[in-house]
């Protein structure tokens, strides 16, 4: 069974779907690994390390002509063309079914495993790339905020005077938000946090941050651990109730997302106008429209004296570890997909396991 790892070609992408450590484990299971020359270089993994781990270096066409293709970013039509009919695609699709790429893959007879459809169960946790990448994203985004803020995060007492700790507000206390809270706390900031799901209150407290309590008159807890969209009345109540806390913040890190819906607006222009000049907003929801309407995706802008960071790919700024976590997630997934047969590893029935069955894309209708 051949596994292919191509170079990621989306602009700004530095990650790679597998690392030399993981390749060694795959080869140890009797799998043949073909990697496009240079695929790991931007993540700090040279070709020579993959070769030492037992992979074969190949060109682009060779990496695609495989039974199981491992990708990080969403495929484009050239990728689909290069894939072997009947093979398996494993990667993120970054869509909610509104594009032509998945139908083209299905028409070609590919089996498509969408990593964003990973069930949120204990068994699936070690295979969940959304979690591992959000975790890194929350960490890296907090460092982005700290370096762009013109003051200290911690309280500083020096012979030249003292500085108060930064007041940081984290909106959305999911995987990225909790890591942002933890990182800002480690840097010594005074951290406040809010999430629409009530169960996050305990988690916020356990990280040493102060929960912001709002009474919206309805719960934002949705299915499968995700949030659901609030009614228009509750959205308006939420914005108004948050505005006092947000206007006092020196740094706001926003991570609030609802799957396949526009990100909720939590930081209004009026709040930005009231923030102290030199404050920073890091909007991790920029790719879904932003939690602040002034955010510009993939740009850093200044509005009303406030720096608003709209970067959309924080894991790519920590590519060695992001790739290592991603690769281990995929290894854990591959391990439940194969069995050792008489003539080497054999693919199990993907419909028979609840995890792979949930991830398999099916034709619409
Ligand atoms: P996400 O990226 O979809 O959303 C980020 C956060 O934004 C969520 O906590 C959500 O509640 C919050 N949010 C949405 N709308 C909001 C609003 N209007 N105001 C404030 N906050 C809002 O979520 P995520 O980080 O991927 O995960 C959410 C939960 O799922 C977490 O509790 C996480 O622990 C859990 N999870 C479990 C597993 C597993 O068990 N395998 C895997 C991943 C995540």
TrEMBL record:
PANTHER family: NAD(P) TRANSHYDROGENASE, PROTON-TRANSLOCATING NAD(P)(+) TRANSHYDROGENASE. This is NAD(P) transhydrogenase subunit alpha part 1. Its EC number is 7.1.1.1. The transhydrogenation between NADH and NADP is coupled to respiration and ATP hydrolysis and functions as a proton pump across the membrane. GO terms for molecular function: NADP binding; oxidoreductase activity; proton-translocating NAD(P)+ transhydrogenase activity. Residues 4-137 form the Alanine dehydrogenase/pyridine nucleotide transhydrogenase N-terminal domain. Residues 146-310 form the Alanine dehydrogenase/pyridine nucleotide transhydrogenase NAD(H)-binding domain. It comes from Thiorhodococcus mannitoliphagus. Belongs to the AlaDH/PNT family. One of its GO terms (biological process) is NADPH regeneration. Gene3D superfamilies: NAD(P)-binding Rossmann-like Domain. It catalyses: NAD(+) + NADPH + H(+)(in) = NADH + NADP(+) + H(+)(out). Keywords: NAD, NADP, Nucleotide-binding, Oxidoreductase, Translocase. One of its GO terms (cellular component) is plasma membrane. It is an enzyme of class 7 (translocase). InterPro entries: Ala_DH/PNT_CS2 (IPR008143), AlaDH/PNT_CS1 (IPR008142), AlaDH/PNT_N (IPR007886), AlaDH/PNT_NAD(H)-bd (IPR007698), NAD(P)-bd_dom_sf (IPR036291).
